[in-house]
Structures are given as structure tokens and as C-alpha cells.
Amino acid sequence: MFNIKRRKADIEYSKWLRKEREYICEKCGKIEEGGMQVSHFWGRKNESVRFDPENTDVLCFFCHNYFTQNPAAYSEWKKEKIGERAYKLLMVRANTTQKKDDKKVLIWLKNVIK
Questions:
Q1: pLDDT (tens digit, 9 = 90+) per residue, 76-101?
Q2: Based on the number of CB atoms within 10 Å of its own CB, is 17 exposed (0-12), middle (13-18) or buried (19 or more)?
Q3: pTM of the entire structure?
């Protein structure tokens, strides 16, 4: 589908999040251990929320594709999922500049996985 460069932190975060959310599509409820994808509500370029659990959703291919093609529907769904206040705070975090720090992310993941 897309040729996205994935850093080690991306790979480990994706594995953790899919397992944490039990390989269940958060939109339709489909369960598929091998086929779930991690969707970034605010794109991957927004480093400040790249590894933020409120910004990332576990979705099946079909729901991920639907939200990619229908960003307004994704926004409405996200607001319902996390609430208006959390949605606004996520938007503020997404628009805050942050440098890449994969070491910090990997240390955080190592501690969360324990």
C-alpha cells in the first residue's frame, strides 16, 4: 500500500499497541492478530504525538482505509472515542514541535511492557 520508512521505535510501538489493544479493530470490532494496523490520527510527521496512545488507533485494513479516505469521519469518531476535551488537548500536543528521540521511546516501551 504505502512505502513508509519505519524506525525501530515505530516497529516496537506498533507491536506493543496492537497487543495492548488485543488485536481488535477499534472501529468495527474485528479480531485479527496478524492483520491489524496502527493508524496515526495526526500524521507520523507530528513527532510530538507519534507514539501517543491517544493519537494512535488499532484498525483493520478496511477501517484504516475508510478513515484515510474520509478524514472528517475519522475526526468525528475520534472525538466520540476520547471526548471533546481530550481531542482538543491532542490537537495542541500534535501542533507542538518535538525532536525525534527514539532512545527515549524505546526506554518508555521497555518499561511499559514489563
A1: 999 999 999 999 999 999 999 988 88
A2: middle
A3: 0.86
Are 56 and 48 within 8 A, CB to CB? no
Q: Which residue do the cell numbers 511499559 mark?
A: 112
Range of the domain at 92: 8-98
| Residue 74: pLDDT over 90 | yes
Tell me if 107 is assigned to some domain: no
DSSP state for residue 99 in the 8-state scheme: -
Provide the mean pLDDT of the chain. Answer: 93
Domain membership of residue 110 (yes or no) is: no
Rounded Cα distance between 101 and 36, Å, is 26
Residue 12, phi then psi, degrees to nearest 5 = -65, -40
- Domains: count for the chain: 1
- Measured CA to CA, the distance from residue 39 to residue 60 in angstroms comes to 9
